[in-house]
Amino acid sequence: MAMASGATSGVEAIRERLTPVLDTLDETVRQGRRAIVRRQHDAEDAAAAAALLIRRRPLRAVMFAAGAGVLVGGLIGFGLGQPTRPRT
Fold it and tell me: Are residues 52 and 62 in the same domain?
């Protein structure tokens, strides 16, 4: 019985040390989840605003998309062309 009592007191000592750590971890996880939900709402709001802007000015949206495509395509082409270019 003394052995069980010693093991129980050891478990209790571990629990006393881990409880604040687990509480802090739990609160951190809760804050992280809240931040994720906030960012999801922000992303949804931004998508809705972008959709509204595209509906209001479709030509501007097409021109912006074309410009972005040219820019990204140029960067990719430059990046792929650099390694194959002979060094002088």
Answer: no
